[in-house]
Amino acid sequence: MSAARLVGRVRPEHDRRTVVLTASSRALELLERHDRASTAALVRVVRELSDADRPALDRALPALDRLVAALEAADGTGGDASAG
Q1: Are 26 and 5 in contact (CB under 8 A)?
Q2: Which of 9, 38, 46, 69 would bridge with 81, disulfide CB 3.0–4.6 Å?
Q3: Is 23 helix (H, G, I), strand (E, B) or coil?
């Protein structure tokens, strides 16, 4: 990831044994581009669902949000499932 310039490496003054990695502007740009593309694909596919499937999907979304939150809690990522 360093060679691809996707992360920045900073060695804190208080502890020269550690390195803090941060996402580079290029990495953030790629993530944003991926988010836009995947959102567009999802919107396109949802629009193609049947009239019966769209309301069923709407009803399932709260449970899917809870599922994502539980998975994040289990692996320690602590992400906010409602932030999309």
Answers
A1: yes
A2: 69
A3: strand
